Amino acid sequence: MSDEYRNHHYVPQWYQKRFLLPGEHHLFQLDMKPDTFVDPRGVSHIVEPLKWQGVRKCFTADDLYTTTIRGIETRDIEKYFFGAIDAKGGPAVEYFEQYEHPARYWGTSLQDILLYMSAQKLRTPKGLSFLGSKFGTRDKHTILRQMMRLRQLHCAIWTECVWLIADASQSDTKFIISDHPVTVYNRECGPRSWRCKEYNDPEIWLQGTHTIFPLSMNKVLILTNLSWMRNPYQCATNLRPNPNPLRNAIFNFTEVQILRHLNEQEVREINFIIKSRAHRYIAAARKEWLYPEKFISKSDWNRYGHGYLLMPDPRPINWGGEVFWGNKDGTGGAMDEYGRLPGDPDYSKETKNRTEHDTLQWFKGEFANLVGPYRRGRCMPAMSLEPERDADDFHQYHVSLQKKNSKERYQQRREK
């Protein structure tokens, strides 16, 4: 059989090219678990961990997706399965990297980026090892079959998240890329947590888990569970409402937050999270970007950005969120903000008990007091983009929401 499609890129070349400097064709790739070799004198040496090489040689493994069916070796997964996903994923990543309000025609960009990200999270060596552990097998054919079957595993949960596209253009340090580029962060699950051992990650359906996906060296997509936005005072490792990932969900393009500009410390903190969750390799256009630990402390894991590094601005977040629709044939339907249908006994439960309503108001006040009147992310809930700065009376209103009760909850959370 031909060697075509034998060297498999588990991070596509087109994606890597989004992290190149203008005019450059190489990245600095760091091996965090370098091999060793023994020289003719019997002395052991560590292989040079840092290499400057083209994207064709970065993030590859021979025959990673090659499997045998009825005794015949096949590489169709690389050629056809990922080929089709990548062909649509590239333009979708470009669309959201350039996203602005009002949104230009999105076509299938949402479906395409969700499918690409979901498959990307499973297709890496770390993702495949995770699947093998969940299904209790090391059989490559079984693992690859489950990967293809579960390619949409993360799509519904991410659809219901609050989307923030943050910008690093004002920082000298830019985003790095890892061998597991769809990264997750939960402030209660530090690098030494049992949820982060070996190939494990905190699940995206845990309340406080953020998903981090760099779109380029200057832009990053951050997805945050709505229930965490409305109540960041709860346990971050509890399950979010309706954690079932295999179902339908509804997305609102007008609620995507943009125009958050990150400072250099924030970019370094995000890079440190990406590096901490990588399996073995990271890469960047500048080698100094590969060492964020020179500026970031692992012991501060739960305190990056005062604990809110990845949080979108809560002030545009509305209470409620039920969606109703009608069809041409006279039928219709409804869905609450957590993807539950009217027949579900928990349908709109949060709206009825109003706990999230109160904590959301408290959080808006805390956040306004923390960052000031300028919005840290703006969306377009009506017919125009939200103002950059809150009016003085509106800002004072938010600050006043931080009552004694919210302050006590805030202090209790800090003490845990």
Explain the overall architecture.
- This protein is of the alpha+beta class and 416 residues long.
- It folds into two domains: 7-307, no CATH class; 323-378 and 387-415, no CATH class.
- It has twelve helices and 17 strands.
- The protein has helices spanning 13-16, 76-97, 109-123, 125-134, 140-149, 155-159, 226-230, 264-277, 349-353, 355-371, 392-400, 404-415; strands at 7-9, 26-31, 36-38, 44-46, 50-54, 60-62, 67-69, 72-74, 162-167, 177-178, 183-186, 209-214, 219-224, 257-261, 281-284, 323-326, 332-335.
- The strands form six sheets. The chain has a five-stranded mixed β-sheet. The chain has a four-stranded antiparallel β-sheet with strand order 5-2-15-10, with helices on one face.
- A hairpin with a 5-residue loop joins β16 (323-326) and β17 (332-335).
- α3 (109-123) packs across α4 (125-134) and α10 packs across α12 (404-415).
- The longest helix has 22 residues, at 76-97.
- It is globular.
- Pfam families: DUF4238 (PF14022).
- It comes from Candidatus Magasanikbacteria bacterium RIFCSPHIGHO2_02_FULL_50_9b.
- This is DUF4238 domain-containing protein.
